[in-house]
Records
---
Amino acid sequence: MEKRKDFLSYGKQSIDEEDIEAVVNTLRSPFLTQGPKVEEFEKRIADYVGAKYAVAFSNGTAALHGACYAAGIREGDEVITTSITFAATSNAVLYCGGTPVFADIDAAIYNIDPEEIKKKITTKTKAIIPVDFTGQPVDLDAIMSIAKEHNLIVIEDGAHSLGADYKGQKVGSQADMTMFSFHPVKPITTGEGGIITTNSEEHYESLKLFRNHGIQKTPYSLEQGDWYYEMTDLGYNYRMNDIQASLGLSQLNKLDGFIERRREIAALYNEKLADIPGIILPKQLEGTRSGWHLYMIQVDGRLVRKPRREVFDEMRALNIGVHVHYIPVYWHPYYQELGYKNGTCSNAEKFYKQALTLPIFPEMNTEDVEYVVSAINSIIHPC
Ligand SMILES: *Cc1c(COP(=O)(O)O)cnc(C)c1O
């Protein structure tokens, strides 16, 4: 096959003139940070997902850190999560002194398996952080009922799943807290940015305190005068600014269109890849509609002679930005040094060894999809 001229990355933001104008308007306004845009963005995200509250952060990782703080995670606490995720998910637990515990994935859906969560619960378990990997919502009803039975807090890592549906509702209102990321490859972008949505006033107050140095106006400080505030806990500067929020507000107007286009591209892939032997297609859990942040296939090692590494390199040589999401988190040297062992999650490791991320983003066209499909076919089935 002939190498395409431009590099087709696995994911890419869509920025138009409206977005640029929104940012420029904020630059011309009196507030670059802590102005009206952040609150407006929080309100719009909360309304969009159907949650009572939203607290915006400087990035998704900071937001996860905040959620772990609000959940009260500290030394001695165990938090169950998946290893097929970006390291930030379990790192947030470490930031608070807690211990991440990795439960295996469901081999067909690639998300954490509720039955595997049950096996990992101990008297030290404090929370569960399921991840809506690739934009595919987790089986939240099952996870929430396990959490209820064992009195655990559920923080849904929805970095991939803004705009996805779980049983007819948007992701973001059913877990105790849900995190969304606005990194440029994610469903919408603010450059860097993240948010937590929640229905709990208590979590909402903790999150606001944590992102702003642990500083608040207490009844005592109000007595002292208008300038007075008190730092009541050790927080951080994890605030989102108005420049980010104004971009987010403009992007949010286009989110449903982006998701619709991602669903069209995924359907095209599903249709065109279906007849190629040796490719395992992604499946969706019944009652959910993925937002298709990522489109991931597996190259079935039993049917395809060529190692995944070679398929990957040959796709890259054609200028197709394939990727692999993710290296099981506990394989990283940092985690190995903490004592995590290879082999902990066998489905996750098997998935990782065969996984390949194909390009998907709203501006991709049908010819791009067809090029990717022909490339895969010719690479794994050379004549
Ligand atoms: C992107 C991502 C994060 C972190 O978000 P940032 O905004 O990049 O800090 C956390 N979890 C998952 C699964 C992600 O993909």
---
Amino acid sequence: MSHKENIREYHGPAAGWGALKSVTKSWLGSENAFRNLRAMLKTNQNGGFDCPGCAWGESPEDGLVKFCENGAKAVNWEASGRLVDPGFFAQYTVSELRKQSDYWLEYQGRLSHPMRYHAESDHYEPISWQDAFALIAAHLNNLESPDEAEFYTSGRASNEAAYLYQLFVRAFGTNNFPDCSNMCHEASGIGMTDTIGVGKGTVVFEDLELADAIFVIGQNPGTNHPRMLEPLREAVKRGAQVVCFNPLKERGLERFQHPQHPFEMLSNGSEPTNTAYFRPALGGDMAAIRGMAKFLLRWERDAQEKGEPPVFDHDFIARHTTGLDQYLAEVDATSWDHIVEQSGLTLAEIEMAARMYRRAERVVICWAMGLTQHRHSVPTIQEVVNLQLLRGNVGKPGAGLSPVRGHSNVQGDRTMGIDEQPHDAFLDALEDRFKFRVPRAHGHNAVLAIQAMEEKRAKVFIGLGGNFAQATPDTPRTHAALQQCDLTVQISTKLNRGHLVTGREALILPCLGRTEIDMQAEGPQGVTVEDTFSMVHISYGQLKPRSPQLRSEPAIIAGIAKATLGDHPIDWDWAVADYSRIRDLIAETIPGFENFNEKIKHPGGFHLGNTAAQRQWHTPSGKAQFTPCALPQQLVNEAVLARGDKPDLILQTMRSHDQYNTTLYGLDDRYRGVFGMRDVVFANEADIRRLGFEPGEKVDLVSLWEDGKERRVSGFMLVAYDIPSGQAAAYYPETNPLVPLESYGDRTYTPTSKFVAIRLEKAGTDNRIPSASL
Ligand SMILES: Nc1nc2c(c(=O)[nH]1)N[C@H]1C(S)=C(S)[C@@H](COP(=O)(O)OP(=O)(O)OC[C@H]3O[C@@H](n4cnc5c(=O)[nH]c(N)nc54)[C@H](O)[C@@H]3O)O[C@H]1N2
Ligand SMILES: Nc1nc2c(c(=O)[nH]1)N[C@H]1C(S)=C(S)[C@@H](COP(=O)(O)OP(=O)(O)OC[C@H]3O[C@@H](n4cnc5c(=O)[nH]c(N)nc54)[C@H](O)[C@@H]3O)O[C@H]1N2
Ligand SMILES: [Mo]
């Protein structure tokens, strides 16, 4: 394919429904167009199902059905008319399937039957549900210790499924809960728990309607949270300021570049005043925000001197916070040079951002993976908290902290106890209610689970959804680790590479998706999810299940639990017959869920509450905590620098418009002007030429890491792009082989997917499977 065919500028709008054309194309091409349309119209409406796409929430007052292009793709993808059935598996050996692209694999349709891998024939063959459960039980009960099993969770699992799963796993005896949030918002949880006593966003939808300024940092809502564009647009319309920090000019955000109400006092006249789009260096946000705080401090001191109104909210600081002096000392100790050098912004830009911040009485700061997938993500998020505390922007209407979650129930899964480091209070409540001893030792997160499998300390892997093999870093190593297992089990809706990276034995257990009717002994069941604003609501599937063999996630977990543990610590069949029974168990053991079954009858669901939003601080000091962290000296790995290896570029790995994590809906990324291919690397044209290449040329990307091992992906086309110098961007999961397993965030273990030091080399032999092949 030539460069010209694949790369062309996109001139259309970016919006939720504005981008209807692409949706209708994907629907009408589907066998189920009508059926899906009907199903979709119930999405996020009472009585319908919750969108299986992202975790964005809605205004509870809003009766309108809100839906977006990418939600449409998620629904349509799940409701595929194609089936991956025993006939399909008879046709292909697993080795043959492994040669197909990720796109091809998921495109084959919905998994229809439980299947067992047979190494002799290299085929998956049908197995009964009972035999599958018995096989899992035999493996689990043969382990020397329950800690030799890993229980992964992806963030689509409902509260009911997640609760049963953690109950089973803890009754079995381990806290090994690697989950997708380990790769996602872990830093947000840790950074906020330390400082404000709660690891969730303090903001509800209405706060966006009241904010004077909304900062959107390291997030691409036009693609990943399209419904968020609407409150942003409303904000700009009513004169609020939207400020973006993103090295890429993301199409969905660009519209906010020219505020309709420019600030008269933004600069001393020497700088342009009409931009609210700042383009920091990768990993440069902490420095940028530190710079904003340093300006606020300067202005505060000026105001004090001149007897003018203060810049800081002294009343809030005195009543609600601790640690201000130490923090300000750290701000004073941070040099402007360090700030400018690391942030990638000019001093004038940082000053402008600080003025926009100061001018607003109420500020919401939203962020996503651009902040959380770095080595210093926890201090970065704590710097966001510091900034907000200076002006009392936590716990008042129209202000607060908003980590925008990814998977539709990733936040709820944590609330339900999918946590490798559970709190004692939660474990005590489980022990009280179920009368068994709960394991107290911390378990494995995603990185520790891979290391354990690699070293044969873990022998069984069970995945409740997701695509562990592809979502995790260091792909060849992770695959080898999974292949060392005695048993791998995937509970899934669609075929993915994880099913082909088998242990000695392997099972595929096909489950219902959220769009499907979930019929149990006592009738059709609904499941609950928690959105990014901590709203919990119930969702009822509407479509006929794609295959009569499918079971719900709770039913599958109950089957495994019963085979492994008998009726300990509960009667699993009883629990699954009517999910309101599971919700009663949740109500008895998790704070905030009292009268759960009653509360979900309320249209739009109920809010779980957030102590920090009430200005109650569940921290050791009982106050909100300023955190004085030094800026990292430099961001590239020390050992790499010490070796004298200088990276050509720093690479971020991100999502295209046509994907949901490892699921590829298509091969276009139209807002970024890429069509029909994914093996591209975006770089600045000057950088491309400086490094001796031409736009359109194919290169290998080689990452640099302290262990000196070669990590390479081949045959990526260089795309000249408006991207700050020194940076590159490419799609995940194709680039996961470049992310070293040990390159993770301090305290978070989150792979540094947004900061990979790379070198470009002339393309070698391309032995990868091109993602475009179908
Ligand atoms: N359609 C669709 N929706 C999704 C998903 C999907 O794959 N497809 N995934 C879901 C999930 S699990 C998640 S976690 C969210 C992810 O939502 P996002 O976080 O928006 O996803 P990414 O594509 O990783 O985009 C990261 C954004 O941050 C910017 N960025 C990267 N590094 C930096 C940095 O150092 N500083 C700053 N300021 N910006 C940076 C990138 O340019 C990009 O715009 O979306 C959820 N929603
Ligand atoms: N390099 C790099 N790596 C990353 C990221 C990055 O930005 N860069 N992002 C990280 C992030 S934020 C996340 S959240 C992870 C995502 O990691 P995962 O959550 O593990 O991955 P997904 O791609 O969302 O999983 C897709 C699979 O889930 C299954 N599935 C879909 N719906 C259902 C359902 O309702 N039930 C069940 N049981 N299965 C279902 C299907 O079989 C599908 O193939 O990836 C992480 N990896
Ligand atoms: Mo995520």
